[in-house]
Amino acid sequence: MSPVKAVLFDRDGTLVEDVPHNADPDRVRPVEGAREALALLRARGIRTGVVTNQSGVARGLLTEADVRRVNHRVDELLGPFDVFAMCPHGPDEGCHCRTPQPGMVLWAAGRICTGPADLVVIGDIGADVEAAHRAGAHGILVPTARTRPDETASADHVAPDLLTAVRAVLDGPPKGRVLADERPIREAYATGPAPGGVS
Predict the structure, then answer these.
(1) Is 45 left (phi over 0), alpha (psi -120 to 50) or beta?
(2) 171 included as an active-site residue
(3) CATH at 68
């Protein structure tokens, strides 16, 4: 298999805390492990990008300029990203870019000159990984409180957190449905043996 050349991330709930229809850059907060995960990818020369549905634009809750300002803050905190892609349409508009449609993933891949087979999409809802599948890319679901149980059950690859998802693709596309959870290992090195000498 080809090595992974790029990883596209869903924005809200995956890279940064989910603030519905956020128009305020000051409310952007990276999720735990985001900076370390991105540093690992960039150290390997793997390109990074963001793909985000922003239906609040269609609903009049925020503007495209608001989205750009929030994206700029995400880039300040976690970048530099190689590409940002945003769908401003509502779920009933029938556009080709809104996930689970593949248009946004394919557009972003084209902007960074990466074929879908060499691309991984990481997101927190089923639409993110379905868009990856439809585009011919690999998808990894990192469930959160808003992820439905059926989305987790149907995903090809599931990781318990963002850092585990990224570690799983450093040497190639993801393998196995439920990816290894490395948090206990990290905690063991950070805190030493558990009480009673059992590690």
Answers:
(1) left
(2) no
(3) 3.40.50.1000
